[in-house]
Amino acid sequence: xxxxxxxxxxxxxxxxxxxxxxxxxxxxxxxxxxxxxxxxxxxxxxxxxxxxxxxxxxxxxxxxxxxxxxxxxxxxxxxxxxxxxxxxxxxxxxxxxxxxxxxxxxxxxxxxxxxxxxxxxxxxxxxxxxxxxxxxxxxxxxxxxxxxxxxxxxxxxxxxxxxxxxxxxxxxxxxxxxxxxxxxxxxxxxxxxxxxxxxxxxxxxxxxxxxxxxxxxx
Amino acid sequence: xxxxxxxxxxxxxxxxxxxxxxxxxxxxxxxxxxxxxxxxxxxxxxxxxxxxxxxxxxxxxxxxxxxxxxxxxxxxxxxxxxxxxxxxxxxxxxxxxxxxxxx
Lengths: 218, 103
What we know:
The complex is a heterodimer of chains A (218) and B (103). Helices cover 78% and strands 0% of the residues of chain A. The radius of gyration of chain A is 19 Å and the shape is globular. By secondary structure, chain A is mostly helical. With 103 residues, chain B is mostly helical. Chain B has 3 helices and no strands. Chain B is rod-shaped, with a radius of gyration of 42 Å. Chain A binds chain B through residues 20, 33-35, 37-38, 41-42, 45, 84, 87-88, 91-92, 95-96, 98-102, 191, 195, 198-199, 201-202, 205-206, 208-209, 212-213, 215-216, and chain B through 52-54, 57, 59-60, 62-63, 65-67, 69-70, 73-74, 77-78, 81, 84-85, 88-89, 91-92, 95-96, 98-99.
């Protein structure tokens, strides 16, 4: 593992421990009150979910056209993180919606396209695990589809009728809310980098193991 | 003819009448006071059980569940990757020692 990993992990852990205090001090939203504070973890996890799908898609494209196993390992790691952060988005969102909208789920375009992106990431992992020989390239094709879905998820709230808040909410946040949000975003981004590196390291070790088995057979 | 305002002379009465005529459209065009900013008069008592679902729910359990879920998922994932990594590293070490013995 690189030298920066442990210090960065310590900084990230401290930041995550501090984040609830900043969030608690942020003002209550006028119409939703306390439950709106889910936003401070929901939005950063949604951004990292989309970022992870993009990383997976780009690495898969580079693997498909360049054939680099390093890019394949990166794509595999990013796909798993897409599932992880997608699960957080798809659980915290309904918990917030239950109070704010009166329902757990709406089949509107933002929620449905997010669910679809999450299912594509699941499909990637399942194809890699059970697809047999050649599944890496088939999964890479799925990752491209998952990446193409990302802009659709992001802009959907601005073009279709939906009860999900629009993207214009973030630039108009008051300072107290903005500080808590951007701190949480920094926490989630650092955690994403750390988990991605850790997961890539696991894939590197697996590749090393495969190479050892091959050398043993020879 | 008796006047209702005996202290007004005829000129004053004409001026007041003109003033009323001129100002009445302006008064009529003034916006009505904003009803939405005033609290509504209570005309019935509604039991809390009849409120919409989102108004009945306490927010705190939802908030705590959301934050607890995030922390538990992160912790579980780090433990999961750590266990997988330990397993693979032990196997790598075992194979390396096997190869070293053979050579």
